[in-house]
Design a protein that fits this description.
18% strand; single chain; 319 residues; Nucleotidyltransferase, domain 5; alpha/beta; 11 helices; 2 domains
């Protein structure tokens, strides 16, 4: 078992920023820090290494810690899904001397979101932020992911998907194929367009980023809250697709016959009843015995839980 002076590192490596937290063997938070994006698909391995290093060094400075290895570290990283991905991050962790190699854990960010969301308990996490993903893990370590294939192949129900569907709906309205609603006008104003004909230049030439498209999702939420039927229909469709993923994960892990806990993570679940109510209704149709709950801890603290567990310290909740 670790001695009192041993410390543990949790890292949440995202596409926007990287968070690092240091805890002791009792789960007490001693230091935290942030860096830039560490999704190496976007910034490359060198960029990811720089962001991880910046976050860890900032956390170390909180506890005046010199650059000695931690007892264990767990890195939950956006974009890490394959063994090739894990090797890239493991090489970075080794180069930064974060922890002894057997005690460096690496997995996708869904894993730490689940660990944080349910404070280390088995169950399912549903993420609905810029993108979307569903991940489940049993007490014996079996796991399954549904969704999370990125903005071209999936991410249904996430903010990018909602923003894109809102633009598609607006085009159909201006064509006369669908009844005109306030949603189209909101999209036009938000994009700074006088004429919807300019949307093609905006999207294909100026190349709206994923973040910019996802930023249209709050307009869908606002319109739906004010009774816009098209906006409501988009949200209902997205929630239906998310519920399908929850059902698929539960079935694969044989959790569909028990009252499995489902932690909800991501900005869309903070948008109020206009999103959460149709999601709840959709999930109850496919998994009526489940318990939906707001995440108990952040993903980076979930990474700390997993770092502690790798050293045999179970049941500790960072605080």
């Amino acid at each position: 078992m670790p001695t009192p002076d041993q410390l543990f590192l949790g890292i949440d490596g995202g596409g926007t920023r990287t968070r690092a937290v240091i805890v002791n063997e009792q789960g007490r938070i001693l230091g935290s820090g942030e860096g830039g994006s560490s999704n190496y698909d976007d910034v490359g391995a060198d960029g990811a290494a720089q962001s991880i290093s910046a976050a860890v060094n900032a956390a170390r400075s909180d506890v005046l810690l010199i650059e000695t290895p931690f007892t264990a570290a767990f890195l939950g990283m956006a974009g890490v899904v394959s063994e090739k991905d894990r090797l890239v991050i493991r090489t970075i962790a080794r180069d930064l001397n974060l922890a002894p190699d057997p005690f460096i854990g690496i997995d996708h960010d869904c894993r730490i979101a689940l660990a944080g969301g349910l404070s280390g308990r088995p169950g399912i996490v549903q993420i609905a932020g810029t993108g979307s993903a569903t991940y489940g893990r049993t007490a014996t370590g079996r796991s399954h992911r549904a969704g999370g294939w990125g903005y071209l192949l999936g991410d249904e129900g996430g903010s990018y998907w909602l923003g894109l569907q809102a633009m598609i709906a607006s085009v159909r309205m201006f064509d006369g194929r669908d009844p005109f609603t306030s949603l189209a006008e909101r999209i036009l104003v938000s994009l700074g367009l006088v004429d919807l004909d300019d949307i093609m230049h905006c999207l294909y030439v100026d190349s709206l980023s994923r973040t910019e498209v996802a930023a249209l999702a709050p307009l869908v939420i606002e319109a739906a809250a004010e009774g816009d039927r098209k906006a409501q229909a988009l949200i209902e469709q997205g929630c239906h697709d998310l519920a399908e993923c929850v059902g698929a994960v539960a079935h694969e892990l044989e959790m569909d016959l028990v009252g499995v806990e489902v932690a909800l993570v991501g900005g869309l679940f903070t948008a109020g009843d206009v999103f959460r109510r149709p999601f709840t209704e959709a999930v109850n149709c496919v998994l009526p015995e489940c318990k939906l709950m707001t995440a108990e801890l952040s993903p980076v603290l979930g990474a700390c839980i997993l770092a502690l567990a790798s050293a045999g310290i179970e049941g500790i909740v960072p605080h």
